[in-house]
Structure formats: structure tokens, C-alpha cells
């Protein structure tokens, strides 16, 4: 083989490699993208059900989704990007498009302008929420993960086919709102719904030498009592300052730890002492049930577009991500749903999105 032929083959190989690298990679399913894509699809269905010209429907859908759901595929640690963006703060390796996004945000002075630029005006944010979710890759093909022939139109119309799948998958779950203002999965929820569980005020936890107190044990008993059958499992929907007591109740052991299926924290609030407790005790060994399995602990943050100072608190509202234990017995699946303008979501929208997320989590 001549040198000229070798050079040509080498050039062809490089061109093929460059072409392959330029192809869009399938998106891995992550909690924030999944929940917000489901919410966007539910909103689409509501707008389409109202009728009207397609152009007006698209305009209404865009206005309903982008300023409320607040998703950008390169938008990790949004509190830093929105309040004090800096190229030096990007954690390597940078996400695709992250440097360009931060450069655009640095050029803007007002946090509100950065919020709009990142979540409303950026084409990647628009594409992530308003394009067909199935185009994100196999992880978002509902026919593979829910039922044959299932599509995102089933989510939009809340079809009988989808409701049947949810009924089969979620009927063993008991959804329990905990704390004042906690969300409830409404009448459409396929599983059993329990009465809200109040959380009495108690002292802050100690860090060293912590042991469950009377308050944690009483809360654990109340949560366990929400299940009437041995086969039922709990989905805890926790709001505000109830987050810390619920976590300590689970950590206290007993049956509660074994029957928790998932925990969703909505706008959680932790005291300084509770943050210290989390740093010390939120680990796989402390929360390990009798049968080891991954348990989602998800956090949905509340964004007030008119209060940029409050965005800084998001870092303190997320759960820490513990290191994987040497035993390999991982239990805690920490999920960051990111921020949303919670006051502009209806109870039905949030309920439907959480149901689909739970079904895909199984």
C-alpha cells in the first residue's frame, strides 16, 4: 500500500471520527429533566384541550413553561450562575455549552435578566422543554419503560392507557403529605392517599452522640400508621421545616425505614443545627433498610422571580450527596429537581408529574 493511499485512508478515518463526534449523544435520564419534561407535557395537554389555532397554542405553552419550570441542560448550581456567575467557578469537566452560557450571564448585571436569559431566551433551554421528549434518546422512550406503544401524547392527554399503567405500578404506594402546605397527590393518584401528618415543633438535633428522641419516634409511628397493609410502601411529600424531623424519623430505624419507597422535599428548610446533623448522619449506613435498595430522596426548590436574594438559599436546601460506602450497599439516591416557580403550578400538574416520575423510578 502506497504512502498516498495511507494518507487518504487516515484522512477518511479522521473525517468519519469527527462526524461521529458531532452527532448528538442520547441524553441520560436525570431527575430534573424528567420531572420538568413531564410537567411541560402535562401543560401542553391542558392547552391543547382548550383548542384554538396552533400558533396561539404554542405561544401559550411557551409562556406557561419556560418562565415557570426553569430548566437548562447546562444549568447546574443555578444559584451561582444567577447571582454571581464566573467562568472560574465552572467545575471541570464543563457541561456542554456551560462556558458559553456563563459568558452570556456574566455580561448581564441584573439577576432577573440572567434568569430570563438562562431559562427563557436560551435556545437550548427552549429545545430541552418544548421538543419531543422521545428525541432525547432511549431513556425517554415511554414505550420502552412504561408499556408498548405508550407515547408522550398519552401523558399530555392523560389517557386511559396511561392511567391503567399507573394504577398497576403505583397501587401499592401510600402518598403522605407531611408538614404545613405539603403537596397532596389528588384524586387521580393511582395509589392510596393518606391524611396529612402534622409535625410538632421540637428541639434542634445534636450532632455527636445523636439518638432518636420522643418526637422522632412519635413521628415515625404516625407515618407507619398511614399504611394499613403489610405490602404497602410510603411516598412522603414533605414541605418546609418538616424536612429535618422526617429525615431523623427515618434514621431512627424500625419499620419506617423499611417501608419508605421515596421522599420528595418541596421547598425544604433546615436550621443550622439540622444542616450539621445532615453532614454527619445522612449516609447509606444510617438510612439502610432491611432489604437494600436505592431510595430516591428528591428536592424541589421554590423560586420567587422577584426575590433574587432568596435564590442563594438553594445551596442550603439541597441534600448532601454522600460518598459511596466501601460495602457497596448504596441506599440513598439523591435527586435534585432544581427550582420551579411553585406558586404557578397547579396541584394537578404537580401530582401528574410526580406519578409519572414514580412509575419510571420503579
Mean pLDDT: 90
Rg measurement, Å:
23 Å
Order of helices and strands: HHHHHHHHHHEEHEHHEHEHHEH
The helical percent reads 40-55%
Distance between the termini: 56 Å
How many β-strand runs? 6
Weakly predicted, low-confidence segments? 11-26
- Share of residues in strands: 5-15%
Largest sheet: 6 strands, parallel
- Total number of domains: 2
The computed structural class is alpha/beta
Placed side by side, the strands forming the largest sheet appear as: 2-1-3-4-5-6
CATH topology of the largest domain: Rossmann fold
CATH class of the largest domain: Alpha Beta
- SS summary, helix count: 17
Gross morphology: globular
What is the name of the CATH architecture of the largest domain? Answer: 3-Layer(aba) Sandwich
Describe this structure in words.
This protein has helices at 3-22, 31-49, 54-69, 78-83, 98-106, 111-121, 123-130, 142-145, 152-157, 160-170, 214-224, 243-251, 255-259, 272-281, 308-311, 314-317, 347-361; strands spanning 173-178, 192-193, 233-239, 260-266, 295-302, 332-340. By secondary structure, the protein is α/β, with parallel strands linked by helices. The chain folds into two domains: 31-130, no CATH class; 163-361, Rossmann fold (3-Layer(aba) Sandwich), CATH 3.40.50. The chain has a six-stranded parallel beta sheet, with helices on both faces. Helix 2 (31-49) runs antiparallel to helix 3 (54-69), helix 5 (98-106) packs antiparallel against helix 6 (111-121) and helix 11 (214-224) crosses helix 12. The chain is globular, with a radius of gyration of 23 Å.
Amino acid at each position: 500500500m502506497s504512502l498516498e493511499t495511507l494518507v487518504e485512508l487516515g484522512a477518511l478515518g479522521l473525517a468519519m471520527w469527527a462526524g461521529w463526534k458531532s452527532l448528538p449523544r442520547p441524553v441520560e435520564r436525570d431527575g430534573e429533566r424528567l420531572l420538568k419534561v413531564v410537567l411541560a407535557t402535562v401543560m401542553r395537554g391542558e392547552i391543547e384541550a382548550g383548542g384554538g389555532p396552533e400558533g396561539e397554542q404554542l405561544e401559550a405553552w411557551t409562556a406557561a413553561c419556560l418562565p415557570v419550570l426553569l430548566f437548562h441542560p447546562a444549568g447546574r448550581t443555578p444559584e451561582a450562575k444567577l447571582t454571581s456567575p464566573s467562568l472560574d467557578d465552572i467545575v471541570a469537566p464543563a457541561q456542554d455549552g456551560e462556558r458559553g452560557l456563563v459568558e452570556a450571564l456574566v455580561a448581564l448585571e441584573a439577576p432577573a435578566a440572567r434568569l430570563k436569559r438562562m431559562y427563557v431566551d436560551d435556545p437550548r433551554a427552549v429545545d430541552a422543554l418544548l421538543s419531543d421528549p422521545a428525541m432525547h434518546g432511549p431513556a425517554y422512550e415511554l414505550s420502552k419503560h412504561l408499556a408498548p406503544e405508550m407515547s408522550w401524547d398519552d401523558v399530555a392527554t392523560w389517557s386511559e392507557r396511561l392511567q391503567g399503567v399507573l394504577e398497576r405500578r403505583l397501587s401499592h404506594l401510600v402518598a403522605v403529605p407531611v408538614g404545613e402546605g405539603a403537596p397532596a397527590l389528588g384524586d387521580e393518584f393511582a395509589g392510596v392517599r393518606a391524611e396529612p401528618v402534622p409535625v410538632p415543633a421540637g428541639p434542634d438535633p445534636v450532632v455527636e452522640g445523636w439518638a432518636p428522641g420522643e418526637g422522632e419516634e412519635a413521628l415515625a409511628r404516625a407515618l407507619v400508621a398511614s399504611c394499613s397493609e403489610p405490602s404497602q410502601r410510603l411516598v412522603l411529600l414533605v414541605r418546609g421545616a418538616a424536612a429535618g424531623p422526617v429525615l431523623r424519623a427515618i434514621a431512627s430505624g424500625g419499620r419506617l425505614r423499611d417501608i419508605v419507597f421515596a421522599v420528595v422535599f418541596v421547598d425544604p428548610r433546615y436550621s443550622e443545627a439540622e444542616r450539621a446533623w445532615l453532614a454527619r448522619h445522612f449516609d447509606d449506613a444510617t438510612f439502610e433498610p432491611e432489604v437494600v435498595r436505592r431510595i430516591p430522596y428528591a428536592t424541589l426548590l421554590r423560586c420567587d422571580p422577584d426575590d433574587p436574594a432568596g435564590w442563594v438559599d438553594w445551596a442550603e436546601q439541597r441534600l448532601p450527596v454522600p460518598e459511596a460506602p466501601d460495602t457497596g450497599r448504596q441506599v440513598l439516591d439523591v435527586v435534585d429537581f432544581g427550582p420551579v416557580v411553585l406558586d404557578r403550578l397547579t396541584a394537578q400538574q404537580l401530582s401528574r408529574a410526580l406519578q409519572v416520575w414514580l412509575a419510571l423510578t420503579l
